[in-house]
Design goal:
The chain is 19% helix and 29% strand. The protein has 244 residues and is an alpha/beta fold.
Length: 244
C-alpha cells in the first residue's frame, strides 16, 4: 500500500429544520514522504483539535499539504492550524469563493485570508499533487468541488470525494439534497463510481465500490451528549445516531 489514510473524524449527514450539522469528514494521509490533510474538520472540533492530532501522533507543523475539497465552513474552517502546509484546491473553487456576487453563504470567508497569506496551489482536473495523488474535478455541490484520487500500489484507486458525494445514500441513489447544479452533481457521482474501488464521502465513513454496488465498510455512529441539566427523549443524557 502506498498511502495510509487515517480518518480523524468520520463525517455525518444531517440537518435541523433551520440549519445543517456541518459534520464534515476530516482525514490524514501519508506515503512516508508527504503528510497530507483531507480538509480541516468542522468548527466544533476546534477545542480538542490538538488532542485529536496528538492521539494519532500527528504534528500540525509537519503537515506538508492540505487538500481542500471545497471552501464550505464544515471543510475549511481550521486552515490556520497548519503553518507549513501547501494548500491545494481547484482554481474554479478559489475563484468562486472569492467572488462576493457568486459565492453561497456556506463559504468559509474567514479562511480566505489565511490561504492568501500562505502557500496556495490552484489545480486543474487530472493534475498530480504528489506522486500517486491526482485532482479530479467533481463539480455540482459547488462549482469547483474537487475530489482526490489515490493510486495504491495494488492497483486500486481510492477517491476522497468531499461533498461531491456526501454519503453512502447519494452514491447509491445519485440523488442529493444540496447542489448548485444537479446535472453536474449527477455526472460527478457517476464519475466517482466509475473511478473508485473505495470512496471516502464528505459526510460518512469509507465505502467499497464493487461492480457499481456501494458497500459501507463499517458502522458510522455518533453519540450526541446532552449536558447542562438537559435530558431528552424521556430522561436520556445521550442519543446514538446510527447511519443505516
Amino acid at each position: 500500500m502506498r498511502f495510509q489514510v487515517d480518518v480523524l473524524f468520520s463525517g455525518f449527514s444531517g440537518k435541523l429544520e433551520t440549519g445543517y450539522l456541518g459534520w464534515g469528514t476530516w482525514a490524514y494521509l501519508t506515503d512516508g514522504a508527504h503528510n497530507m490533510m483531507l480538509d480541516t474538520g468542522y468548527v466544533g472540533l476546534r477545542q480538542n483539535y490538538g488532542e485529536i492530532l496528538a492521539s494519532h501522533r500527528i504534528r500540525a507543523e509537519e503537515v506538508t499539504h492540505v487538500l481542500l475539497t471545497h471552501m464550505h465552513f464544515d471543510h475549511a474552517c481550521n486552515v490556520d492550524q497548519y503553518p507549513n502546509a501547501e494548500f491545494v484546491l481547484s482554481r474554479q473553487e478559489w475563484e468562486y469563493a472569492n467572488d462576493p456576487e457568486r459565492r453561497d453563504l456556506f463559504v468559509e470567508t474567514g479562511a480566505l485570508a489565511t490561504l492568501r497569506a500562505g502557500r496556495l496551489r490552484l489545480v486543474e482536473d487530472g493534475e498530480e499533487i504528489v506522486p500517486g495523488v491526482t485532482a479530479m474535478l467533481t463539480p455540482g455541490h459547488t462549482p469547483g468541488c474537487c475530489s482526490y484520487v489515490l493510486q495504491q500500489e495494488d492497483g486500486s484507486r481510492w477517491v476522497l470525494a468531499g461533498d461531491a458525494a456526501k454519503n453512502r445514500g447519494e452514491l447509491r441513489t445519485r440523488e442529493v439534497q444540496m447542489s448548485m447544479d444537479p446535472a453536474a452533481t449527477s455526472a460527478s457521482l457517476r464519475r466517482i463510481i466509475e473511478t473508485a474501488d473505495r470512496v471516502l464521502p464528505g459526510h460518512d465513513g469509507w465505502v467499497t465500490v464493487r461492480n457499481g454496488e456501494v458497500i459501507p465498510e463499517g458502522e458510522n455512529d455518533k453519540v450526541m451528549i446532552f449536558g447542562q441539566g438537559v435530558r431528552v427523549n424521556g430522561g436520556q443524557s445521550s442519543v446514538v445516531l446510527h447511519m443505516d
